[in-house]
Amino acid sequence: MADDNSVYRDLFFEESDDNLQTLNDSILELEQEPDNIDLINSIFRVAHTLKGMSATMGYDVMTKLTHKMEDMLDLFKTGKMKVNTDHISLVFKCLDKLQELVDDLRDDKELEESQITDLWNELDRVESSAGAGEPEAESPAPVEKHDEGALSTKFEYYDDADTDVVNGAKADGMNVYAIAIRLDKDTMLKGPRVFLITEHLEKDGEIIRTEPSADLLEDGDFDTDFRMIYLTKDSVDDVKHIIESNTEIDSYIVEEFKEPAAEEEKAEEKSETEEKKAEAKPAEEKKPAAGKPAAKTQATAHKAKNQMIRVDLTRLDRFLNLVSEIVVYRNQLEDATNRESIDEIRDSLEQVSRLTSELQDLVLKIRMQQVSVVFSRFPRMVRDLSNQLNKEMKLEIIGEETELDKTVVSELSEPLIHLLRNSADHGIEDPETRKKLGKPEVGTITLAAYQEGNKVLITLSDDGKGLKPEIIKASAEKKGIDTTGMTDREIQMLVFHPGFSTAKKITNISGRGVGLDAVQAKIAELGGSIEMDSKVDVGTTFIIKLPLTLSIIQALMVQIGKESFAIPLDVVERVVMVREKDIMQTSNQEVCKFQEGLIPIIRTDKLLQVPSSSSDKKYAIIVKIGKQYYGVLVDKMIGQQEIVIKKIDPMLQKIKKYQGATILGNGSIALILDVNAICNSRQ
Amino acid sequence: MAKRILIVDDAVFMRMKLKDILEKNGYEVAGEAQNGQEAFDKYQAEKPDLVTMDITMPEVDGLQALKMIKQADANAKVVMCSAMGQQGMVMDAIKSGAVDFIVKPFDTERVIQALDKALS
Q1: For the HPt domain, which residue ranges apply (chain A) (predicted)?
Q2: How many angstroms away from the CA of A12 is the closest CA of chain B?
């Protein structure tokens, strides 16, 4: 029966991703140091691991490609082929393809041979041109003769020299045996297998002759049968015992050695010899172990994608400690409650509250992931970009160990890729231009992450040409955006305007369509903000501010009618009291005065269909969304509170008014207003 | 009493796979190590009945670890885990005292047969 590998799937994917990432990084390094043999060895090792893993899972197509790639790496390793840029690019292609295969497998897609044909052929071409093109290739389909029929000790060649040795040994009182061994049909690494058997035998005697020759045996260049003449003092049973201590032997014969001349008489003695089927299991039964993957059957069980996270064991240990402490105080509480001792209850409660806040911190930390998870793929990207764009640039990464909530980290790559492409494409100038400007020819893009309070800042800066206000202005006007009276900085900020693209030529790098507005939207979705600072001919810097975590936030608790709601505190600018008479009606909306201007008022009671209190006195929660202020009207203020965000039903999410819900101290539920969505729907 | 095995492999995935095979067939996993050095240290601490040793591992590879273990305990039983294409390494391992070797992808029967024989 084939082993059910489905339980290992998640682990397989996670480790494959890791291994592919490692390979990407190492290959990138290899391009810089093509002669670093340690590096080549470590690359080879990782590729090898990948091959072993995919073979174990029974993913044949992936195994085939990893195997072929390994062949190529082996040429580097043995020095038969020099590492050059083309080779590096080819290996990268393999890695991309492998990633694609892994992703397909993750989605329960059956892999097709055709997915790798082109790449495989390309590898084959490169490998054979390196002169190492042993047609060993994918299916080692041996066209050679098959050992079929009965196993025999009959030697094909025999010469007199052997006779002398045999006779000499006999004279010394040694036994001379003819041994024939048939290996299991699908034995792998036959060379070492035979070597192991002969090693065992030679501890107790001497092998004077083998058929096929020792060289062929060592190379595994034979089918399943081999014969030898063995000199020893041991009895037949002893020899059998030695042979049986080996694995993967299908059957064997041990008999008194007879010179070929006497061979014919051997037949009737056959009863003496023994042909033993080693723990005979029909070979067919063993075969399917690595055969077809159980993919089909897994498909049903694995529809839902499980997100996995790796956790530092010490954190989990602390977690366990805290929980057991809580259990202790719970018991104390029960005990104290039984005795109705208020003081003791209070003491225990204090401990419980300390422990729960520690637990809360810890769980948040467990959910944290280093930004390196995302950053690590960028060096490769910048390398490719620099080749495609014929510009020289390098990427510097700072603070990749900075941690963020896993959900944020996994959403981060898309916007960052976009910004990076922008920098590479529009920011960094070509080498000649840079030279003229007195800049180093190699452009630098710096990606940095660091924590500041309960926010994480990610900055991406380039030392490129910066945003030229004149160009942006011209481009904006062409698109019908009014720029009159705008400062240079305001004009630069237009790049965040929906549908804006400054590239004079549309390239396939930063393309058209999705602009920086999409980046801004994504960051806002993650509860963060993005700022930009750009100086002409000096460079552009984007600063992304993100909350450390999405699951616990500071919120302003308010009441509308009789219902409690939470408003995330980070969008709240301030709270002002308003009366009905302060609210004015303009042509299309209600507004009220705030600072020097008028801001739109949002009546939550109408929007959320909650009956509001009849009181004239209301509170306007002033929120800032983008650059626009809004006043969200509520009846009562409850106060500031730390809340845990619970997911709500997708149906409720669809109405785009609530981010989630939270459970209050008294056990009731409050919905969390999605202020972003509410205000934007106003526009 | 169940025989105690130390599993050495740099891939968690492989270790899990092997652990599963062993535990389903009445072996006890005495420990796991992810490189040769760790293997040596765990061998000293756990004194397992047998070690399954991957060959390609970072830092100290399986071959070095095998030699270290054999030097410390000449009777140590080490079964090498190899993949196709590692003939030379396996030969070296056998010369250095490995009792047997198993080839990835692992076939449950073969693994168990190798271990049973090595421990008999």
Answers
A1: 1-105
A2: 6
Strands A628-634, A539-547: pairing kind: unpaired
**Angstrom distances, CA of residue A563 to CA of A38, A579, A672:** 66, 21, 12
> What's the CA gap between A551 and A42, in Å, rounded?
40
The tokens describing A105, both together, are 């497998």
Nearest CA-CA distance, residue B97 and chain A, Å: 10
Q: Which amino acid is at A331?
A: N
Q: Give per-residue pLDDT as tens, A578-619.
A: 888 888 888 888 888 888 888 899 888 888 888 887 778 889
Cα dihedral A5, A6, A7, A12 sign: positive
- Is A472 exposed, middle or buried, given 0-12, 13-18 or 19+ CB atoms closer than 10 A? buried
Beta bridge partners of A176: A231
Picking from A535, A555, A529, the residue whose alpha carbon sits closest to that of residue A637 is: A555
- Per-residue pLDDT of A244-275, as tens digits, reads 888 888 888 888 887 765 444 444 444 444 44
Predicted ipTM of the assembly: 0.86
Instruction: Give the pairing of strands B50-54 and B78-82.
Output: parallel
pLDDT digits (tens, 9 = 90+) for A657-678: 888 888 887 778 899 998 888 8
**C-alpha torsion sign, points B51, B56, B58, B61:** positive
Which segments within A73-221 are labelled E, that is strand? 175-183, 205-211
Residue B34 CA to residue B8 CA, distance in Å, equals 6
What distance in Å separates the CA atoms of residue A50 and residue A201, rounded to the nearest whole number? 36
- E-assigned strand segments in A348-389: 368-370
Helices (H), A79-148: 85-106, 114-127
Q: Give yes or no for residue A7 having a pLDDT over 70.
A: no
Partnered with residue A639 across adjacent β-strands are A557
The CA distance from A139 to A135, in Å, is 10
The two three-digit tokens of residue A546, written as one number: 């993100």
pLDDT tens digits along A485-511: 888 888 888 888 776 755 444 444 444
What would the 3-class secondary structure string for A623-672 be? EEECCEEEEEEECEEEEEEEEECECCCHHHHHCCCEEEEEECCCCCEEEE
Parse chain B into domains and list their residue ranges. 4-119
The DSSP line for B67-96 is HHHHHH-TT--EEEEE-TT-HHHHHHHHHT
Which residues of B lie closer than 8 Å to A, measured between beta carbons?
Answer: 10-14, 16-17, 20-21, 56-58, 82-87, 90-91, 94-95, 100-101, 103-110, 113-114, 117, 120
Neighbour count for residue A668 (Cβ, 10 Å): 9
Beta bridge partners of A558: A565, A637
Which tokens go with A220? 């595994």
Tokens for A444, please give them.
């630098």
Q: Tell me the pairing of strands B100-103 and B78-82.
A: parallel
- Rounded to whole angstroms, how far apart are CA atoms A613 and A635? 7
* DSSP code per residue over A518-529: HHHHHHHHTT-E
Whether residue A10 has pLDDT greater than 90: no
Both tokens of A376, joined, read 């690590």
Architecture of domain B4-119: 3-Layer(aba) Sandwich (3.40)
Q: B105 and A289: CB-CB below 8 Å?
A: yes
- Determine the Cα–Cα distance for residues A598 and A596; give it in Å rounded to an integer: 7
- Collapse the DSSP code of A549 into the 3-class scheme (helix H, G, I; strand E, B; otherwise coil) and give the result: coil
Which DSSP string do the residues of B55-67 spell out, in sequence order? S--SSS-HHHHHH
DSSP three-state, residue A599? strand
Rounded CA separation B32/B9 (Å)? 8
- Which of B8, B12, B13 to mutate against chain A (most A CBs within 10 Å)? B13
